Amino acid sequence: MSSAVVSTSAAQGRLCVFAIEEGGEVCPQPSEAELFTEGRPLQRAFSTSSFSTSKDARLAGITPASRLARPAPEMVSSGIAAMDDLTEGLPRGCLTEICGPASSGRTTLLLAALAASTRRGECCVLVDASDALDPHSAAAAGVELDRLLWVRCGENSPEKSLEQLLRATDLLLDSGGFGLIVLDLGDLPPQAARRIPLTTWFRFRRAVEHTPTVLLAVERQSIAGSCSSLLIKLGPIKPRARVSEQPMDSQFPPPSHAQVLTGLEITAELVRSRMDRKPVRSAEITFSSRTAWAG
Predict the structure, then answer these.
(1) CATH number of the domain enclosing 87
(2) pLDDT per residue over 154-174, tens digit each?
(3) How many structural domains does the chain have?
(4) Does any domain span residue 241?
(5) What gap in Å lies between CA 88 and CA 91, rounded to an integer?
(6) Are 293 and 260 in contact (CB under 8 A)?
(7) Confidence of residue 6 (pLDDT cuts 50, 70, 90)
(8) Distance CA 254, CA 245 (A)
(9) Would you say residue 69 has pLDDT above 50?
(10) Quick one: which of 28, 218, 219, 232 is 20 to 30 A from 14 by CA?
(11) Model pTM score
(12) In this structure, is residue 223 part of a structural domain?
């Protein structure tokens, strides 16, 4: 038996001694006669063409993940006919995002979805991050308050409100039994809402999957990324108003510019839809929102 001395940089200049048996080579080299036969390289063990053929044969019976058929989710009405024409409704077992700035129709769509769900006899939940719901406006919009659970997360700081909202959502998704769960993040500052990690939205998506629950997130900006199956962007077109009808014999005559807001003309754009694998067309709709005092 003989020994070999090897020095490596990983050993930091120290010598390593390995014992090698006599008469044997660590990696025997083929002779020139083995490498070449009639002037051509010898194909040993297997050929590249035969390996490729056997690999293609094994993969022939495997269906790519992109071609796997997924069952289409059940769609339910959003409460607004024009919106249903655009999106075919709200998908059960999926996360839907509704985003838009202030006065863009977020609350109108939120209340319409709650009203449609309670009319179907379903129990609903509104997780309110800013304690912004007006029960009188909800009742006027057709929401059956007896079927609505209102989770109020209004705290002094947006961070605490957001923490309560996430904890409540986890408990609600685990308990099940709700037709619609709405997360109202619309009045939170965008920088606070963006602190929700993507893993949290992924957990929500997996929790609601294969359930009859519609999970609806209402925000200023989209924050769930690819975890949402449906993304709708709202924006106002123009307000509708009428001149104040104060009596002329009043002590203070009405100014010529006084107007009363009666509603909004709202535009909705379908930004993303994972209901099928076809590319989403750029489509917009317009619908009206009327104030409760407009009559």
Answers:
(1) 3.40.50.300
(2) 777 888 999 999 999 999 999
(3) 1
(4) no
(5) 9
(6) yes
(7) very low
(8) 8
(9) yes
(10) 28
(11) 0.70
(12) yes
